[in-house]
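Deviation from plan, reported transparently: FE2/S2 (inorganic) cluster complex.
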Amino acid sequence: MENNGRRGFMGKAFGAVAAVGAVGSLVAMKKTWDPLPSVKAAGFTTLDMSIYTEGEMVTEKWRGKPIFVLKKSAEVMKNEKGKPDAEARNIKVGNDNFMVAIGLCTHLGCIPAFRKDSNDFKCACHGGEFDASGLVQQVPPPRGFDIPPFKIDGNTLVLGEAGPEWQAMKDNGVTL
Ligand code: FES
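Because the crystal trials were delayed, the predicted structure below was used instead.
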């Protein structure tokens, strides 16, 4: 029981990071102690979207997967204007626009690299390329980056929760 208590403390101290884990192990833990709020939120990652810098791609983590977060510059937004496929993937939080996507190549799962100069992504495995909205610009990837379930809550983005904006993307075939 002492060990379980220590786990609980760790969960509280490191929040979502410590709470990330296999569902199976959480089920096992649930049998021995009452989950703390942070553990109840397992599978959710909350991102404060006010901290990102325009044009700087940051890799976050959700359920063990890399999550690309790119706060779009005015130039990127200008390039996307009039391109419905790109606009449909845009995530607007407050006055800012983001690409938020699972950072795994949809071909065979490598992690593409961001190229700041060209505002796009290159997958070293087989040469796939994605633009700043996550759409394929060079095959073999069969589709753009997948977009994780998200909910916009003020200035934060809750990954792992399906809000109306994400549901609309899914319903419209923008993401799986
Ligand atoms: Fe990215 Fe093949 S895994 S192009």
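Residues 2-40 form one domain. We consider this an acceptable substitute for the interim report.
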